[in-house]
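anyone seen this seq b4? input:
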Amino acid sequence: MSDVVELLRGLVAIPSVSRESNRGVIDFAKGALAQAGWSFREHGYRDPAGVEKVNLVAWPGNVTTSDGGFHLALVCHTDTVPYGDWAEATTLTEQRDNLHGCGACDVKGYLACLLAVAFQIDIARLDKSLAILLTADEEIGCVGARYLVEHELLSARYAIVGEPTSLRPVRAGKGYCLAEVIVTGREAHSAFPEKGKSAIYGAAKLIVEIERIAERLKELRAAGFDPPWTTVNIGEIQGGMAKNIVAPSCRFLLEWRPVAGQDPRLVATLVEQAVAALVAADPAFECEIKVLRTQEGFALAEESELLRSMLRASGNAADSVAFGTEAPWMNRLGAEAVVFGPGSMLSAHSPREFVPRDELSRCVEILGEVICDLCG
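predicted toks r here
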């Protein structure tokens, strides 16, 4: 159970897409941690579909209780994105020293490293508290991490959040926000459009304003990101009933990824102002904005002891990422957070997903060095 590749093989074999329970992965991890002499507790909940989801907090030693306050937390989510008809999704295969399988990169590779390093830790030499924190439903909105925050179930001084970074310590990341925009019109026969009001035309006017907002945001730059501004995207749009009916409704999903330090509601506020301007020009314009998610970005100070330790151990320069992570939620638990792990996000979320074998073993070494550095 201490071999990182065999641990990964076992983890990949357990389907854990977000719509299913992560119980199988949690039980696998508990079995490994128990063999390594760790204690743990579960924090479970049911998702809106009634499916069991589990967060796991584990710590070294046979102490059966913990006050929930840790010096260092090693954090990893346990769910994966769907894998469709990928025939070998749950079978770990190797091609040219790359290990392929659903979750191999995002992030069961990192989870295998956590379990492997648990076997290597000399518990008697630790003088500061250490935890492994496994979360549910990261891929659909960091739901498990949010549950821990909202219920105030633990705290930490430092956190290493697992994501594929090619073993580069990530000190800053963008947030992730999502809103549903619903424009309402009035149905009519398309031969008599003046009898109705096209919601699609209205949505088009608003989308033009949103594109202008996106351009304005490029002026609010944050160094270290690529691109160095908050990005805006409309990824889905639906509207209308038939080709010969004036559309009575149109809805679209608006997402934005705020740079660290920026109010995550800024884009929503700017869109609300654009709606107000459209209403002033046309009092019949009707629109509702439902903000579904606001997750801020994060940034770790360059002088952070955690970052310095990660830089020394990895030998790699610090980096930033444009994708969302659980790091902001660890910030809310009181932790300075860095994002780190084997593999590249460029291969994740696809049948090409893989993690390099050598990065797994190197990740175990780096984590071991950082634990010794920060926890004794």
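Residues 19 and 48 are 10 Å apart (CA to CA). The chain has two domains: 4-173+297-375, 176-295. kinda curious what u guys think
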